[in-house]
TrEMBL record:
Keywords: Aminoacyl-tRNA synthetase, ATP-binding, Cytoplasm, Ligase, Nucleotide-binding, Protein biosynthesis. It catalyses: tRNA(Trp) + L-tryptophan + ATP = L-tryptophyl-tRNA(Trp) + AMP + diphosphate + H(+). InterPro entries: aa-tRNA-synth_I_CS, aa-tRNA-synth_Ic, Rossmann-like_a/b/a_fold, Trp-tRNA-ligase, Trp-tRNA-ligase_bac-type, Trp-tRNA_synthetase. PROSITE patterns: AA_TRNA_LIGASE_I. One of its GO terms (cellular component) is cytosol. The keyword Protein biosynthesis applies. CDD domains: TrpRS_core. Catalyzes the attachment of tryptophan to tRNA(Trp). This is Tryptophan--tRNA ligase. The gene is trpS. L-tryptophan binds at residue 134. It comes from Donghicola eburneus. Its main location: cytoplasm. HAMAP family: Trp_tRNA_synth_B.
Length: 335
């Protein structure tokens, strides 16, 4: 069976972007013809400063978000990265396979480091190499992600190819495919349609958090930036209107509709009609999830227990692959 791997950083509260671009699609792939492995990638979160107590909370909250959205820990392997040390071990080997020039081309690093590239952590720079390890440690073949992660999955393929070629280990690491599908592969910031919605964006008004209450969701959509024109009668009319397009994409993804169907329903309507409909839909979809997240968060020990179980199952797959990798590289592990 083909194997799916994907992860989410506990670098803050989950956003609607994480939900539509990633989690909702993780749920869709579960129980189909895939073995699904989903990870709270805490080692990635610490590439930028995280308060230790908040990191523990966010790690459990992302796990709760997965489960509340429909990831079933008995169907999927669900765990946090730090509890499977094989990730960091393979990550080091890949640091020695990947080239500095490859990292220099990563646009997410450029965006995140900005003008401050000398002052960010070395981990932030090497992050895509650890991400390659996350995926290849399980010989995963399918990686559902948002658009922003496409380049990193492509780099994972480059690392796999170079490793296989350098060590004459033909096909040892498989070529993985990014799975980037649906109308919401890149949910944009509500205040600026040229920027992606992020957990760590400056203002809370830029994003919808999965735990926002109904009033907050309504307020954020009401204040979302738009142009004054009504919704167009056809999809072409959205091409130069990034904010309008974003809200249509969000509606389509939440309702499991195509953008065409949304335009067929709302074309010609003003924002005064569309925004409240969008807010109602978002509340309808997110409220049950956030209620369930809160319920799960009342019992952190139970979340830890589920993560521990998941990490045991993850290790069973990871350890033999890591062991073989050490052997291929020529690293001795007597005993
Ligand atoms: N705005 C988005 N639209 C669609 N998909 C998104 N993803 C993130 N933002 C959007 C997808 O969510 C998954 C997990 O991402 P991540 O937590 O590993 O890191 P990220 O992409 O850096 O997410 P954030 O929310 O922007 O976090 P911060 O602010 O901490 O960096 C990925 O599949 C991603 O594509």
């Amino acid at each position: 069976t083909p194997r799916v791997f994907s992860g989410i950083k506990p670098s803050g509260g989950l956003t609607l972007g994480n939900y539509l671009g990633a989690i909702k699609r993780f749920v869709d792939m579960q129980g189909q013809d895939y073995e699904t492995i989903y990870c709270v990638v805490d080692l990635h979160a610490i590439t930028v400063w995280q308060d230790p107590a908040e990191l523990k909370h966010a790690t459990r909250e992302v796990a709760a978000g997965f489960i509340a959205s429909g990831i079933d820990p008995s169907k999927s392997i669900l765990f946090n990265q730090a509890s499977v040390p094989q990730h960091a071990e393979l990550g080091w080997i890949f640091n020695c396979v990947a080239r500095v020039g490859w990292m220099n081309r990563m646009t997410q690093f450029k965006d995140k480091a900005g003008k401050n590239a000398e002052k960010v952590s070395l981990g932030l720079y090497a992050y895509p190499s650890l991400m390659a390890a996350d995926i290849l440690l399980y010989h995963a073949t399918h990686v559902p992600v948002g658009e922003d992660q496409k380049q990193h999955v492509e780099l994972t393929r480059d690392i796999a190819s170079k490793f296989n070629k350098d060590f004459k280990a033909e096909d040892f690491f498989p070529m993985c495919e990014p799975i980037i599908e649906g109308p919401a592969t890149r949910v944009m910031n509500l205040r600026d349609g040229s920027k992606k919605m992020s957990k760590s964006g400056e203002s809370d008004m830029e994003r919808i958090n999965m735990t926002d209450d109904a009033d907050t969701i309504a307020k954020k959509f009401k204040k979302a930036k738009t142009d004054p024109e009504p919704l167009p009668e056809s999809l072409d009319g959205l091409s130069e209107r990034p904010e309008a397009r974003n809200l249509v994409n969000i509606y389509a993804a939440l309702a499991d509709m195509t953008n065409e169907a949304v335009i067929a329903e709302f074309g010609g309507e003003g924002w005064g009609k569309f925004k409240p409909a969008l807010a109602d839909l978002a509340v309808e979809k997110l409220a049950p999830i956030s209620t369930e997240m809160k319920r799960l968060m009342d019992d952190p020990a139970e979340i830890d227990r589920l993560l521990l179980k998941g990490s045991d199952r993850a290790k069973e797959i990871a350890e033999p692959i890591l062991q073989k990798t050490y052997d291929i590289v020529g690293l001795l592990r007597p005993g």
